Amino acid sequence: MPSPGRAAPPSRLSERAAVPAGPVRPGPGARALLTPAAVQVHAGFWHTRRQVNARTSIPQGPALLETAGNLSNLRIAAGLADGEFRGAYPFVDSDVYKWLEAASWQLAQPGSADDGRLADDVERIVSLIAEAQQPDGYLNTWFDLRKGGRCYQDLRWGHELYCAGHLIQAAVAHHRSTGHPELLAVAVKFADHIDSVFGPPGSGKPIDGVDGHPEIETALVELYRETGERRYLDLAGYFVDRFGHGLLGGEAYCQDRVPVREATDVEGHTVRQLYLLAAVTDLATETGDEELRAAAQRLWDAMTRTKTHITGGLGAHHDEEDFGDPYELPNERAYCETCAAIASVQWSWRMALLTAEARYSDLVERTLYNGFLAGVSLDGERWLYVNPLQVRDGHTDTGGDQSARRTRWFRCACCPPNVMRLLASLEHYLASSDDRGLQIHQYVTGSYAGEVRGAPVVVRSETDYPWQGTVTLTVEETPTDEPWTLSLRVPQWCTEYRLHCGDTVLDATDASITDGWLRLERTWSPGDRVVLELALEARLTVADPRVDAVRGCVAIERGPLVYCLEGVDHPGGGLDDIVLDTTQPLAAKHRPDLLGGVTTVVAAGRRRTIDDPGWWPYVNADGADPGHSDEPIELTAVPYYAWANRQDSSMRVWIPTL
Amino acid sequence: MPSPGRAAPPSRLSERAAVPAGPVRPGPGARALLTPAAVQVHAGFWHTRRQVNARTSIPQGPALLETAGNLSNLRIAAGLADGEFRGAYPFVDSDVYKWLEAASWQLAQPGSADDGRLADDVERIVSLIAEAQQPDGYLNTWFDLRKGGRCYQDLRWGHELYCAGHLIQAAVAHHRSTGHPELLAVAVKFADHIDSVFGPPGSGKPIDGVDGHPEIETALVELYRETGERRYLDLAGYFVDRFGHGLLGGEAYCQDRVPVREATDVEGHTVRQLYLLAAVTDLATETGDEELRAAAQRLWDAMTRTKTHITGGLGAHHDEEDFGDPYELPNERAYCETCAAIASVQWSWRMALLTAEARYSDLVERTLYNGFLAGVSLDGERWLYVNPLQVRDGHTDTGGDQSARRTRWFRCACCPPNVMRLLASLEHYLASSDDRGLQIHQYVTGSYAGEVRGAPVVVRSETDYPWQGTVTLTVEETPTDEPWTLSLRVPQWCTEYRLHCGDTVLDATDASITDGWLRLERTWSPGDRVVLELALEARLTVADPRVDAVRGCVAIERGPLVYCLEGVDHPGGGLDDIVLDTTQPLAAKHRPDLLGGVTTVVAAGRRRTIDDPGWWPYVNADGADPGHSDEPIELTAVPYYAWANRQDSSMRVWIPTL
């Protein structure tokens, strides 16, 4: 779920090609609130990835959910079939809801609704969900079928409110995209049931509690935005503030160790932490709560400074899917769950809207192009649950959901429909507007449409980003009688750029550009053109020395892309003995034939053959260098997002220099 | 489980102060088989640790097993009490058996049997076990109490044969130490039951299968040694060879991916792999099977070259307690289960006896002094299940069995009684003899007694090892009419030494010393003295460059000890920003007041304060060095085995040099 903003009441489907996002209500303490702009992506990098999502990933969903048993569970709960609950986890309903959210956003894309099959699948599953709902509004097939309906008695592990949250998000997407009321009615009925059950001591409600896996909180804020019903916002605020008080046993895993208002670092289960923080930011946006805003800023800083992989990936431990300690950023055992990357994009985008600060969209960009996109294969049919930064030459894969090899579907299938919904709603995360103008956060070929003081503004964009750094923007609609500001984000990775706008030329030496935004305030005319040239040199990156795992290593980056080496491109010896020569220049080489068309980066290196070390691999540092012979080798790096799309192979992002 | 060798029938307890180990039967293809020598430890480093084991750890066992429910389960199974099975795992019986094995070995120590309490505890629990055994010989409280006695139907997870193995090992220890027949009778009856049930297709036995957790195999070899019954050896051989054929689903975790005769690398669950390999070596020893011998040698080499931490610790993954990939040796997430260190000692010692090669005892030494001994606190009351090589300054511990903080007892309490049994039987691993003489593998203050061509030889030893490198050996008993060889292991870490023996002076320049053994062949007289001086300089060690986790780091070692830094010794800033200056000398400083008396190593270093890196910790490698200010600091390293015995603190073994 995408973005704050209440939708205008839909009229005809075709008019909502880009889902219009209504105004955010600034709260009393809010500053600089931005509103999502309506964006269309017409061509280029993300268009290609979204086409695969629309044509392969999303359409295959219903069959995969059928095979895995998720839809069968709903039919049984609806009394339409007999049988046993199927699925390895209590939260399998959420897979259906996330797919439904993805498909609903997809139906809002130009042309998608013309394909009757997807709309039919959506309406068929919506009807099934409505039939499975109990008269009082409750809905969860695990508790219905396995637990005799003993609901809300295992909040720590049951995931009932988590599933409800995904149902609500799906309903908001479905209503906003199609205008159909049916699923929203299911969500409202369930939300009202939850609101009648949960509340603080003294409220007269029977349960004072929260769900072990946050998700309902941000969903309730979205439901508030969609319906205008304040109770949902209040309920979200109640839930957020009840974490950290021991209702779940006090574990960091469940975000229950410390109240978020007091927290100083992100901790515990990564996705749970991030979903909770997205809700914290939503609440700060909608209510103007300065304490929540400060907590969100503080925790975002702590996370990015010490717990974020270079890919934007989050989560250092397989065990408990935990954030890990500060600067604990392993490579081969990086967890970096695909869902965590998605949650990070959702949270950071909310922070960008709340604060108007560019760095939040810097992380969105980095995460989208790297940690997130690696989660799905180029053909849209295979997935990674975890996203390691290294796979060794001798890697023995034990399979399962956490495999380093792409998998068709998972026992815990949270990631695939999560990828689908983010790709299908990607345009929600690309631009914003406010009373002063339009802000372009991410560069695509398409159009950005916002509203400035009641007047529509539309800017067309053409770019071959991220392969090329030139972005050509043409004003298409504008009030011609009053000035507004076109703001362009200068990516954090970019140290050299030039902007042409009529007679204006700005570059990186311009002192006015200090906060990541290039701001062009003027009275615009249709046809005005702005050309932004971002220097896209391949570069070597080093980490803070406290990141122990990558000491003595560099990463290759170009533009927003993090690169990696794959064993398949380096036959004859694998990657474990490779050293990069930092004194030699890097060369970018576009390869339209490779991996759907990528720019590779070629570097000079050598392959080190170490003399037989005997049985013990640790030697006296005196006399130091273990004997070895070196052979020069050309290293070919490919974008990290495209790895693991050929044969099983070794891979590494961080390359030794010594 | 200690050492091959059938015990002489016991006569009086006091005569078996050091448990005599009978001759190993060399098989047809065996070469260089050694026999364990009888050793007594009188004083010094290991004596102190064993005193704590004898006076604190072992005596507290029964109360802890009572609290955890293990003994209650046996009483219920015996019909002596009512109640429910208690314990988190199906294999909790094995905790009792391992404690019983520890206590039994302890009873063989001089003076221990005089403490009637321990002997009473042992006999009381032995009787309880005998009463809990079913008439047909089967015994497992989990299956009795929880599974309605449906035995051998869940070999993958049930751990029935694993528990049986520990029962058999305990019975061998009990019989060998005390001469009492009761527990051995229980073990024999259970082993006969297993032998009647398990066998290859066509054998007429009902089940062709193996246990998901190896242990029964090496126990059956021990039972064969204790009873002379060949069926037990054959059954062990059958089990070993049935792994790797898919009987357990083909998973590496259960050692079922590939037959051990074909395996080229250690893999899967670390302790399972090591217990299996101990049995492989036992079988090679007893049967002369050259293929098993070759497999054991091949796998030991693979393990030590690429999958062993500098502490001797084994196991890279928390997830599935897995070995991990070659050169995947993380620090903060090192698993290095204490039980794996114990299993490694057991396996390597068997390899030393089988091959007479010194390197196996090199690894025994390294593991005993580091990866193993860190598993128990100096006071003998608290434990580590996993043994990380780094704990960060900002470490958030989630508690549980895998905590980086010492714990009183575990839900899965495999490690504590395993430590107890190894410490109580430590003398089994220290020396050997054969027809040519006596081999001293580990240096202690005490006496080494073997038999050379029928004649007893006894050598007394005095040393302050590992703090000092001088070992003074005095021949106490010897045939005076024929020569024999006294062999002294020169530790693999030692590059400079001098040996004085009468007129003979040998040092590291002597070309005859090529395989780790100093061999002194002569006709000895009582009172002959040999002085070995091992140079004990503190040193810096680097790893094979393929060990990514420690690139740009050094470890401090001195003698057999690996050192670490603890935050508690470096107030005012923790350890994450510390750099060691490799150009400055190291200084050893004995501190009798510290940690029970340790030699510390002092090094020069600096504390690096990094300029505020902003929100993103990855920077362009050009312009390189992130700004920082450095402050000189004296680094104090303590032996790794002694870490985590003061307040909770950060710790690191590998120290950055850049």
From TrEMBL, chains A, B:
Domain Non-reducing end beta-L-arabinofuranosidase-like GH127 catalytic: 38-427
Coiled-coil portions: none
Biased composition (Low complexity): 16-31
InterPro entries: 6-hairpin_glycosidase_sf, Beta-AFase-like, Beta-AFase-like_GH127_C, Beta-AFase-like_GH127_cat, Beta-AFase-like_GH127_middle
Domain Non-reducing end beta-L-arabinofuranosidase-like GH127 middle residues, every copy: 438-535
Molecular function GO terms recorded: hydrolase activity
Keywords for this protein: Hydrolase
Stored Pfam families: Beta-AFase-like_GH127_cat, Glyco_hydro127C, Glyco_hydro127M
Domain of life: Bacteria
Location of region: Disordered: 1-31
Every Non-reducing end beta-L-arabinofuranosidase-like GH127 C-terminal domain range: 539-656
Transmembrane helix as UniProt keyword: no
PANTHER family for this protein: DUF1680 DOMAIN PROTEIN (AFU_ORTHOLOGUE AFUA_1G08910)
UniProt-recorded name of the protein: Glycoside hydrolase family 127 protein
Organism: Streptomyces plicatus
